[in-house]
Amino acid sequence: MLDATFSPRAPREDLAATSYAPAPRPAPAAMPLPHLYARVAKHVLPAEWPLIARDVEAIERLKRERNAVILGHNYQAPEIFNTVADIVGDSLALAREAVNVDADVIVMAGVHFMAETAKLLNPAKTVLIPDAKAGCSLATSITAADIRLLRQHYPGVPVVTYVNTSAEVKAESDYCCTSGNAVKVVRHVAREWGVNRILMLPDEYLARNVQKEVPEIELIAWKGHCEVHERFTPQDIRDLRENHPGVVVLAHPECPPEVVAAADYAGSTAGMADYVRDEKPARVVLITECSMADNVAVQHPDVEFVRPCNLCPHMRRITLPNIRRALETMTTQVEIDPVVADRARAAVERMLAIR
Ligand code: 13P
Ligand code: SF4
């Protein structure tokens, strides 16, 4: 039998009145790096900030010493996205910016396929990924051998692969695409190749969502899924609308088609951020990885963000301490076999050439 004193329900008014009372938040100006603290104050406790600020200062110094830039994906935690990241965006923007980067070192605050894409486009630069295990369920859903088999099965059918794939898979592809340009890429390929069938790999849901936009082209899909977006259901959207009247629902096209159909808009992470900037909905929910809403909300204090939370465990592997360590030790460097890299780069460059 539990002694009542140790019951978690036992009221401890003495403690509640003293140690459990929330300490008053110091004004951002009283904190180190106050301009940065102001951006993350909603997500970082005042007591945590001095340690975080120490990493931020060290990273800024290391960036100057190494002539490094940090590319930050929209899903990065607010204390990375709003502080040390020099260039932020969706995977298309990061791929485009990687070409223009004037630095010796690129640190990818994102997942491994994004770091590989940066390396493909900057073969002479050092590209660092702070945790080499930051993967992606889509990237592991298909191999280069799978694509070779599919080509045997569908001779003459062009292969468009999502950038969320390994360099080896990109090397077997004719074109890459991102969620931001997928419709444009498949239309371009159908026109240029004079075909009405395309293998669109590996994200089944992205292919099915794009299919609705291009009924004139037959898209052959694979069974890859994003482990974050596949968890959303149409019932989630109905519940959100019931519990938050008037909420505008924006969904990422990696969500199942029934979820996209229940949303008001579907687009890449940048597409969703642009929608909020342009349409300024009073109340919005982003059906995607949850750090995204935290980051977009910083720019839009007048918009109410409803926040269901599905975190990407791979994105979460990137932290300020491991970004700092990556720059201190210059590890882990992304290396790609040169023969694979040449073929993979061609697929990415064909995508970037489509305007
Ligand atoms: P975006 O291209 O929209 O940034 O998406 C990348 C990604 O990994 C989404 O899960
Ligand atoms: Fe991959 Fe999904 Fe994570 Fe994006 S959110 S990196 S698609 S697992």
Structural write-up:
This protein has helices at 13-17, 34-40, 49-66, 78-81, 91-100, 112-121, 144-153, 167-171, 182-193, 204-211, 234-243, 257-262, 269-279, 291-299, 320-329, 338-353, and strands spanning 68-73, 87-89, 105-109, 126-128, 159-162, 175-177, 197-201, 218-220, 248-251, 265-266, 283-287, 304-306. It is an alpha/beta fold and 355 residues long. It folds into 3 domains: 44-135 and 316-329, NadA-like (Rossmann fold, 3-Layer(aba) Sandwich); 139-225, Rossmann fold (3-Layer(aba) Sandwich); 229-311, NadA-like (Rossmann fold), CATH 3.40.50. The strands form 3 sheets. It has a 4-stranded parallel sheet, sandwiched between helices. A 4-stranded parallel sheet has the order 6-5-7-8, with helices on both faces. The longest helix is centred in the first third of the chain and has 18 residues, at 49-66. The chain is globular.
List the helices and strands and how they pair.
Elements: H1 13-17, H2 34-40, H3 49-66, E1 68-73, H4 78-81, E2 87-89, H5 91-100, E3 105-109, H6 112-121, E4 126-128, H7 144-153, E5 159-162, H8 167-171, E6 175-177, H9 182-193, E7 197-201, H10 204-211, E8 218-220, H11 234-243, E9 248-251, H12 257-262, E10 265-266, H13 269-279, E11 283-287, H14 291-299, E12 304-306, H15 320-329, H16 338-353
Parallel strand pairs: 1-2, 1-3, 3-4, 5-6, 5-7, 7-8, 9-10, 9-11, 11-12
The structure holds 1,3-dihydroxyacetonephosphate and iron/sulfur cluster (SF4).
Iron/sulfur cluster binds at residues 111, 136-138, 164, 226-228, 254, 289, 312, 314-315.
